[in-house]
Amino acid sequence: MRLIETFICLIEKRGHSIKTRDHKFSILTIYGENFEIKFREKCVRRDDPDYTWSSTTLVPTGKLSIRVKVKFNDKHWNDGYTLLDEQLAKIVAYLELKAQEIKIEDEERRRRNEELEYERKLESLELYRIQWEEDKKTKLLQDVEKWDNWMKLNNYITYVKNLGIDNPKVNNWLNWVNTVIKAKNPFRTGLLPYVDSYDFDEEKVKGELGLL
Questions:
Q1: Cα–Cα distance for residue pair 102/31, rounded to 1 Å
Q2: Could you list the residue range(s) of the whole structural domain that residue 167 is in?
Q3: % helix / strand / coil in the chain, to the nearest 5?
Q4: Whether 69 and 137 share a structural domain
Q5: Is residue 161 part of a domain?
Q6: Which residues have a Cβ under 8 Å from the Cβ of 188 and sit 6 or more positions away?
Q7: 69 or 55, greater pLDDT
Q8: 103 lies in some domain
């Protein structure tokens, strides 16, 4: 159809593109935004003279129409007092404006979503911090238990040493126990590093939440 050829020519001159998806509609791409577009000839329903019983058939009117799906709404242009051929430039201008509006809306939506996601991550960070305050109490009780066991182990090995048994096998065993005592010492790396282990590792949590 001449109308479609003229429309495609106008679209391409404006730097846009149109591709046929199937026999039902085509995809019009303007500024990176896609629109479903359909060209059709309007029809009216009339009685079908070839049938005795009441029957109707669709009869083409010769009047053309263009339907474009813009977001979730359909926009129609029809032959009327002004023919579609004379409306093509207006149609393209409308769609270019809509494409720009959609881009702005999508960018604003993306920005809002990023802000909401950032706020959600900050809330999660605060929840992690609150949870750590509870976890520290559990850690303290566990460390006290470890220290108590370590002290018992020290007292135990001191008692054994005081028995004064000088035997190679006993001495080897005592050496092994001493390595265990050294490894189990809660303060083997120093008091300050131990106290630091009670600090909330904010940088680590931020990394896990994607805040860095």
A1: 10
A2: 121-209
A3: 55, 20, 20
A4: no
A5: yes
A6: 182
A7: 69
A8: no
Q: Is the pTM of this model over 0.85?
A: no
Phi-psi region of 28 (alpha: psi -120 to 50; beta: other; left: phi over 0): beta
**Claim to verify: residue 68 and residue 129 sit in the same structural domain:** no
Q: Which residues contact 25 (CB under 8 A, 6 or more apart)?
A: 36, 37, 38
Residue 142: inside a domain: yes
* Residue 164: strand, helix, or coil: coil
Domain end residue (candidates: 42, 64, 86):
86
Residue showing tokens 């992690």: 128
Q: How far is 62 from 82, CA to CA, in rounded Å?
A: 14
Q: Does any domain span residue 187?
A: yes
Angle between helices 88-162 and 168-184 (to 10 degrees): 140
Per-residue model confidence as pLDDT tens digits over 136-157: 999 999 999 999 999 999 999 9
